[in-house]
Amino acid sequence: MMLFSATLYLASTWLLVDAGIAKETVTTCVDNVVHRLSCDLESVISVETSLYGRKDNVTCNEGKSPDEVSNTNCSLVGVANVVKERCNGKKVCELSTDVFGRSDPCGATAKYLQTTYTCLPAFHRVICEHSLSDLSCDQGQVIVVHGADYGRRDQTTCLYGRPANQIQNTACSSPTSTVAESCQGKNSCIIKASNSVFGDPCVGTYKYLEVAYHCQYAVTPDEQI
User: Fold this and answer.
1) pLDDT tens-digit profile, the chain (225 residues)
2) Which residue from 154, 159, 157 is spatially nearest to 172, judged by alpha carbons?
């Protein structure tokens, strides 16, 4: 298990927004530690922005020289897309800042990883491999998929009747857009958790599909005008 450095500075700031949903900003200051996003039981992560670099000279400046914090126009391209792919639709998401540290946008600058996200109310479904599940909404509503992953992230989910060697690999879960492509905008949708649908991210491991979605009333073309 990765230990948090004593120099890690982790800041979480809650801001109220008009829709009644809170935004949280998490800042992780040092490399090779875990950047952790989390939501309560009945909600899932929806990433808005994410920065690896530096945009001011105040954040994570403890113990740094003026030269290390003077470049405030430093950011790695594509960070938000990576964090969204890994974290959207999950209740908890952890990723190492080392993932981004391998590409250095500004060599002599002290960098940090900062993510702003909201926790959206959502249904969370777990579908064991070879099983079917019907995602459905009330009449007049349609499915909005927040995220989906196929693989295995722990040894306790979908373990009944499985030998130890089929559940021990917990680092094989992969994000998939297949659920959104099949179900987005529909009132109901049947999904099968299988390698034939999602590919096989870890041969020999018994997998499961995790899906997070919510239902909203369909918007007609007249309402969009």
Assistant:
1) 333 332 333 343 333 333 456 789 999 997 668 999 999 878 899 999 999 999 999 999 999 999 999 999 999 999 999 999 889 988 899 998 888 877 888 989 999 999 999 998 999 899 999 999 999 999 999 999 999 999 999 999 999 999 999 999 999 988 999 999 999 999 999 999 999 999 999 999 999 999 999 999 987 655 544
2) 154
Record the tokens describing residue 162, joined without a space: 């499985």
Q: 170-194: buried (b, 16+ CB within 10 Å) or exposed (e) per residue?
A: eebbbbbeebbebbeeebebebebb
Helices (H), 52-159: 66-69, 79-87, 98-101
CA angle in degrees (0–180, nearest 5) for 171-1-27: 90
Rounded to whole angstroms, the Cα distance separating 144 from 210 reads: 15
Whole-model pTM: value is 0.72
Virtual CA dihedral for 69, 73, 77, 79, nearest 10 degrees? 50
Backbone angles phi and psi of 145, in degrees to 5: -85, 125
CATH numbers and ranges of domains, the chain:
23-121 (2.60.120.740), 124-217 (2.60.120.740)
